[in-house]
Amino acid sequence: MAERLVGKPAPAFTMETVSGDGQDFGKVSLEDYRGKWLVFFFYPLDFTFVCPTEITALSDAYGDFQTLDTEVLGVSIDSVHSHKAWIAAPTEIGGLGKINFPLASDITKKVASDYGVLIEDEGVALRGLFIIDPEGELKYQVVNHNDVGRSVEETLRVLQALQSGGLCPMNWKPGDQNLQG
């Protein structure tokens, strides 16, 4: 039986990263995001078709996330060298181009497994997106089949609902009233 993650401390991680411009390698851990919100998302592989549409859309909205005191971190099972090559490759031949947040390497597949998105027989992650609060509690998760991309607008809406501090009914939007608890 699958273990529930929402409402619990997010599984800890430490991974190698490449910066969004592809110039710098580093390391990142969940602790690095303490005190900020984190949109943490998995995608299957570099140099694929749906993945760059999601990554560039999240990058284009990065200013909106920053306004909400939120960082963004993408991760796949590819190496940081593959991430760097994908960022550096021209977009007209399937490259990603510069993005506004780092990409992490889960080459051991441990983090994907810990977050419940690893497709073990394929060795890749499903499209999992997680929102983690400033104290490290996992507040939201959505997992899609790899054929279907996610919605930046819905991610922003849910993030704002979580940050509103109240009960948010269906189709709640920023500016709407919260329900009485």
TrEMBL record:
Gene3D superfamilies: Glutaredoxin. Keywords: Antioxidant, Disulfide bond, Oxidoreductase, Peroxidase, Redox-active center. Pfam families: AhpC-TSA. Residues 4-164 form the Thioredoxin domain. InterPro entries: AhpC/TSA, Peroxiredoxin, Peroxiredoxin_AhpC-typ, Thioredoxin-like_sf, Thioredoxin_domain. CDD domains: PRX_Typ2cys. Belongs to the peroxiredoxin family. AhpC/Prx1 subfamily. PANTHER family: ALKYL HYDROPEROXIDE REDUCTASE C (PTHR10681:SF121), THIOREDOXIN PEROXIDASE (PTHR10681). This is Thioredoxin-like protein YkuU. It comes from Saccharibacillus kuerlensis.
